[in-house]
Every structure is written in C-alpha cells, then in structure tokens.
C-alpha cells in the first residue's frame, strides 16, 4: 500500500515524523509536505506562481518532498505528480492543536484531507489537542488503527475522517466516540500597533467560545475522548434547500 503523508506544520514537524514512524509499519509512506508552516490557510491553492519542490533530507537521508505551497497543493501534486504509484490513503497531521468545531474550516491539516476526498482518495486528518509540549505517541498509534479501518472498508472510497486526540497519557484517554462537528465560534480581536513610519498594523487574536453541547467533537474532546468525525466538502445547507426552492419558485425575474 502507498500512503501519502502531509501536514500544515511543515515537513520537519515532529507530528509528521511520529506519523511516518507508526504508519510505515503497514505501508510505504511518501511525505509531501509544506516547506514552511502553513497553519490556518484553509483550502487555499497556489495559482499565481509555480510550485517549487525540493527533496528534503534529515540526518543525511531522504525525508520527502518539500513543497513551497499549501497543504492542498501538496496533496494535488503528490497524487498527480510525485508518487510513482497510486496513492491508497492520504493522512494529514499530526497537527499540534485541535481541529474541532469552526477550526475545521480554517485548518490546513483538515483541508489536505478534504482535497484528497475531492480527488477520490480516502483520507484521514489527525490532530492533538495541545499547543504546548506534545507527546504524539497515542495520536500516532490511533492514526495507524484508523488507517487500517479505512483500508478495510473499500466502500469508503473518497471518504474523509477528522480525528482529534486529547493530550493525555494513553491510559487516561477515556475512549473513542464518533461525533458530529461542533458549533463553537471564535470571537476575534485585533491588537493595533504603529510602525516606525507611523503606519498602523494589526495582530489578530481571538478567544474560542465553546458551545454548550456534549454530543460534538468539542464536547467529547474536552472530556478526554478521542473524537472521530466523518466530514465532506459539500457545504450545501440541506435544511434550508427545500424551503428556499419554494420561495424562489414564486419570484419572477
């Protein structure tokens, strides 16, 4: 089997190394990842300049392909150009920081998985719920188990699965739950500063406002559970679709 591994933290990120070490036990793993950190770029792709690709090494050995582009770019060029054989699964991560709730929209990690889904390749995004010192052991081990599950279900062709793992020792993780994406929001604020030429510039910051819900990725992750959420790139609001069709059907041009 051939797995394509990517992330949004950059090709030398520890989470990606941990992922490769674990998944290489089951498959031939090819890394195609951003040359530098691409956090919060969402599903951006590069169209205004060429993509540069270099062979990255670590300790004198080939590590993978470093792409001067976004995670979605990496998946596109990895599947179409850099992998000399068909890719069976794309795995993105392990991200340092949870990708649950509204963060799914902004996440480069998750967008790499949804790009694979668009291309008809099953995918897995894996994130660890920490911004501090990270032990990726439990997250990497579960990524391997989840990859095996996906590979055993051929009917999931093109499926994308988003996984979040609590930053806890493996023995303290309460279990695994399949849940929906949460609806928490981020309240942004901007810190204004003035440069030496008297021009204003801003640093964006924000505070996450978790929803009062327990049946979502946000709620379950906070309680110490690994969360598994099937996701899709179809953004249609089906609850509103029928009602809107009826209303527009009565409108004359």
Structure description:
This protein is of the alpha/beta class. It has a single domain (2-182, 212-248), classed as 3-Layer(aba) Sandwich (Stationary-phase Survival Protein Sure Homolog, Chain: A). It is 28% helix and 31% strand. The protein contains seven helices and eleven strands. The protein has helices at residues 14-23, 71-82, 103-106, 108-118, 137-152, 217-222, 238-248, and strands spanning 2-6, 28-34, 53-58, 61-67, 89-96, 123-129, 160-166, 175-178, 185-194, 200-209, 225-231. Strands 3-4-2-1-5-6-7-11-8 form a nine-stranded mixed beta sheet, sandwiched between helices. Strands 9-10 form a two-stranded antiparallel ribbon. The longest helix has 16 residues, at 137-152.
Roughly how much helix do the residues carry, as a percent range? 25-40%
Low-confidence stretches: none
Distance between the termini: 55 Å
Helical run tally: 7
Radius of gyration over all CA atoms, rounded: 19 Å
CATH superfamily: Survival protein SurE-like phosphatase/nucleotidase
The domain count comes to 1
Largest sheet, strands/sense/barrel: 9 strands, mixed
SSE-based structural type: alpha/beta
Beta content: 25-35%
- Count the E strands: 11
Topology:
Elements: E1 2-6, H1 14-23, E2 28-34, E3 53-58, E4 61-67, H2 71-82, E5 89-96, H3 103-106, H4 108-118, E6 123-129, H5 137-152, E7 160-166, E8 175-178, E9 185-194, E10 200-209, H6 217-222, E11 225-231, H7 238-248
Parallel strand pairs: 1-2, 1-5, 2-4, 5-6, 6-7, 8-11
Antiparallel strand pairs: 3-4, 7-11, 9-10
Helix pairs in contact: 1-5, 2-4
């Amino acid at each position: 089997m051939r797995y394509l591994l990517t992330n949004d933290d950059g090709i030398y990120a520890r989470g990606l190394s941990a992922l490769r070490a674990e998944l290489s036990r089951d498959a031939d793993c090819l890394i195609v990842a951003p040359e530098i950190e691409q956090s919060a770029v969402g599903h951006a792709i590069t169209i205004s300049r060429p993509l540069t690709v270099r062979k990255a090494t670590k300790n004198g050995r080939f590590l993978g392909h470093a792409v001067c582009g976004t995670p979605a770019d990496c998946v596109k060029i990895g599947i179409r150009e850099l992998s000399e054989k068909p890719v069976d699964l794309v795995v993105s991560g392990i991200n340092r920081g949870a990708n649950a709730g509204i963060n799914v929209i902004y996440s480069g990690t998750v967008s790499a998985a949804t790009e694979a889904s668009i291309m008809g390749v099953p995918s897995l995004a894996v994130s660890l719920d920490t911004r501090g010192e990270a032990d990726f052991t439990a997250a990497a081990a579960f990524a391997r188990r989840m990859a095996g599950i996906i590979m055993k279900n051929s009917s999931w062709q093109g499926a994308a699965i988003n996984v979040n793992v609590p930053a806890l020792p493996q023995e303290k993780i309460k279990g695994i739950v399949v849940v929906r994406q949460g609806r928490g929001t981020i309240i942004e604020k901007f810190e204004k500063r003035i440069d030496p030429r008297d021009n204003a510039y801003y640093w964006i910051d924000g505070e996450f406002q978790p929803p009062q819900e327990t049946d979502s990725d946000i709620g379950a992750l906070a309680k110490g559970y690994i969360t598994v959420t099937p996701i899709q790139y179809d953004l249609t609001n089906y609850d509103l679709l029928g009602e809107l069709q009826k209303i527009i059907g009565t409108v004359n041009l």
